[in-house]
Amino acid sequence: MDLARTEVTGRAARAGSAARLGLMAVPVAFFAVFFAYPVAAIVARGLGADGGWRFGRLWDVLAQSDIRHVLWFTTWQALASTALTLLVALPAAYVFARLEFPGKQVLRAVVTVPFVLPTVVVGTAFLALVGRGGLLDDLWGVRLDTTVWAILLAHVFFNYAVVVRTVGGLWSQLDPRQEEAARTLGASRLTAWRTVTLPALGPAVAAAALMVFLFTFTSFGVVQILGGPTFSTLEVEIYRQTSEIFDLSTAAVLTIVQFLAVGAILAVHAATVRRRETALRLVDPSVTARRPRGAGQWTLLAGVLGTIAVLLVLPLAVLAQRSFDAPDFAYYRALTGDDSNVFLVPPIDAIGNSLGYAGAATAIAVLVGGLAAAALTRRDAGRLVRGFDALLMLPLGVSAVTVGFGFLIALDEPPLDLRGTWILVPLAQALVGVPFVVRTMLPVLRAVDQRLREAAAVLGASPWRVWREVDLPMVWRALLVAAGFAFAVSLGEFGATVFIARPDNPTLPVAVARLLGRAGELNYGQAMALSTILMVVCVVALLVLERLRTDRTGEL
Amino acid sequence: MHTRTFVAAAVGLGLVTLSACGSSDDGGSQAGSKTVTLVSHDSWAVSKSVLADFEKKSGYQVKVLKDGDAGQAVNKAILTKDNPQGDVFFGVDNTLLSRALDNGLFQSYEAKGADQVLPAYRADQDEHRVTPVDTGDICVNYDKAYFSEHKLTPPASFDDLLKPAYKNLLVTENAATSSPGLGFLLGTAAKYGDDGWADYWKKLKANGVKVVDGWEQAYNEEFSGSAGGKKAGADRPLVVSYASSPPAEVIYGDPKPATAPTGVSAGTCFRQVEYAGLLSNAANPEGGKALLDFLLTSEFQQDMPLNMFVYPVRKGAAVPAEFTQFGPQAKDPETLDPAKIADNRDDWVKSWTSLVLK
């Protein structure tokens, strides 16, 4: 009897690890072919010479004072942006977690919109707010463009949702009775918070801070648009060195530096996340939120709502307002006109292109990310698998221009002669979509009781059947949420798309960028109109997601 | 579930949604094919009738791939030169010519009509790897209204720009990232020499020159003389732009003004020449040669000015009246030997960056 059971579980375990290897093959192959290979190709082009390697370039480049200046600026602006984001968004995390107020669900979607908007649109919105002739300029003659403040504010705008969702998500599930017990025992409100809640929240705050640091450390569009010629992050410098100055070896060195930095950030992040997953006893978020009580909570709520209005909604509103700033919706009507000098198609076609590309990218991202998450599900997964987990995040931290140029030179020969085909765009977009799919799916998959799977296996179900009968019914909502996130992120992807999108098939962000690069009021107005359309599509997608959200759905 | 299966799956997926996303032709054309592909920068433009005429006469279908701004397009072409995206590349100028030639971007072909090109614009005479197609001058433009309101004579030379009367009036482009910005820097290098240009820029910086990243921003947002700048409330009446910008202000004016609102400071010009060439490893070299011949015909040369705001390089090619009236070519522009540019460009840009931007 005992023997037979051991044999069955042993076989199941073997089948399990074989299945896991099979599952991992697809994501591994995907990242090898569409990420590692192109990036390695472009770096090799920069550092290879006459069959040898010029690693000496590493020190030459790092010794240059302007490169060190870039490194320094990249780091300190990321630190400052992270600190500022935490400062502004932590109170909001509390409000979303612990207070109940009407319109909360819509508002949660609204604060997430900036995160998925393309940087070129955000840059433009901020120029419209703080640039020449912007709102602040009109009201008080204050201009912040080409100052570092515009960059920092835009970074807060972008990453607000990361903090609210990551920290707020956990906060809403912390048992408030622990803090209440501390109060009963005589602790002041502050002491109770500091000694009970803060330590529990610590890992989530750290994880959110690291994510914000990662996103701002690799910031591209915002710095390029708002920074002018003086401010440059590593990512912008890689773009300039590759695309404008054509110093591929400097670009390769900077790519390696950024790669190492991002790898380090991700390693620390993975460690914090593991700690967060293990330590806490959580409760249903619906029982922890209450209507605000007392002047303090009302003030906090008002303060957070005010901040959201000024910092998040106002730039978006300015954008929308400018798109209507002509009689009879002239800018929107102009979108259907054929302006063969800017594009080869009417700009309105960009909407169809974008939706088509994002749809294909979502399919790829869900397939690859879903399989990766399934492979990573088991908690007893070894070190190798955990390393794979962190690896999946790397595309978020590697310069999009490196990926774009890499595609151009690496995917140009049979059997991978994809250059010039439209599939390149969804592939590049899927690279940034996969991490979100994995992040969303993993916690839900891990919450599925392993014993259910084992029971099904013992009863003779194949691994595929186990997944279909046990996992799928429990995770389909998470799958939809993951798909939605991948869709929104793909829709907004700009850095790589701008390199590989064909002129006759521009996406929305690419069309916006190209319109902004042309003289004339009508072009500017059309850029605003397209941005507004993109914004509306994102809001709708996110509102649908809010409806589907489950308690366990992972955060970023 | 291995690489091949997955790629097949991805490609299969691709085919299904293909129709949703429009055409997906590969960039290159086949040998002996009737399609010839031109790779160019975003500013490429030609009248539809003129191109249709070429297609009818030659029997070739022309496909155009606009591949980013001038610098980006050249860089992408170099990166993909072993397996190019087309047959002909148009749009490398004299400031970047050496980069294209040194990297083996082009193969030799002397276009029909090359003997009709004005001698001043010819280049690479030994190997004929490039064909000059158009020319233009990068010059300081001034806002006429500003200078008449302030009863000030507009600057006429590089030296004038250092005068206190013009303090804080000039906006230019980043020489590292913008082609007029680089042209202006090369103009000062030609004028003041290897030893003098840095000193000139120190003084220009002291006189309040403003540097922005690109031409669009400089001309449309900072320069008070342009249509865009007026709307944006721009406050710099001097900008580094092209000699053909004043005619553009007239031609695109609504209503069309009787005279140009802007003028050109004649002594601040640097001559730019744009070339085309047959790409090494072109899939359809015969079609590419026919296309290069076409670029030098009178028909194309006379069609260019109003499409791309450049001047023809062919002897006797007619220029529109707006050009001769409001934006004549500079009489005595600064020029630099391409070899000299090749040797110094990167160092100059580097020193310029640390001198002016840091």
Please explain how this structure is put together.
The complex is a heterodimer of chains A (556) and B (358). Helices cover 76% and strands 1% of the residues of chain A. Chain A is mainly alpha-helical and 556 residues long. Chain A has two domains: 9-54 and 330-556, MetI-like fold, CATH 1.10.3720; 84-171 and 201-320, MetI-like (MetI-like fold). In chain A, helix 1 packs across helix 15. The longest helix of chain A has 46 residues, at 2-47. Chain A is globular. Chain B is built from 13 helices and eleven strands. In chain B, strands 1, 2, 3, 4, 5, 6, 7, 8, 9, 10 and 11 form an eleven-stranded mixed sheet that branches. In chain B, strand 1 (35-40), helix 2 and strand 2 form a beta-alpha-beta unit. Chain B starts with a helix and ends with a helix. The chains are: A mainly alpha (556), B alpha/beta (358). At the A-B interface, helix 1, helix 3, helix 11, helix 15 and helix 18 of A face helix 1, strand 2, helix 3, helix 7 and helix 8 of B.
Concise synopsis of the structure shown:
With 556 residues, chain A is an all-alpha fold. Helix content of chain A is 76%, strand content 1%.
The count of β-strands of chain A is 2
What is the domain total for the residues of chain B?
Answer: 2
Q: What is the helix fraction of residues of chain A, given as a range? A: over 70%
Highest-level CATH class of the largest domain in chain A:
Mainly Alpha
CATH fold field value of the largest domain in chain B: D-Maltodextrin-Binding Protein, domain 2
- In what range is the share of β-strand residues of chain A? under 5%
Q: With helices defined by DSSP (H or I, 4 residues minimum), what is the helix count of chain B?
A: 13
Estimated structural class of chain A: mainly alpha
How would you describe this structure in keywords?
heterodimer; A: 556 residues; mainly alpha; MetI-like fold; two-stranded antiparallel ribbon; 76% helix; 1% strand; B: 358 residues; alpha/beta; D-Maltodextrin-Binding Protein, domain 2; eleven-stranded mixed β-sheet; 42% helix; 17% strand; disordered N terminus
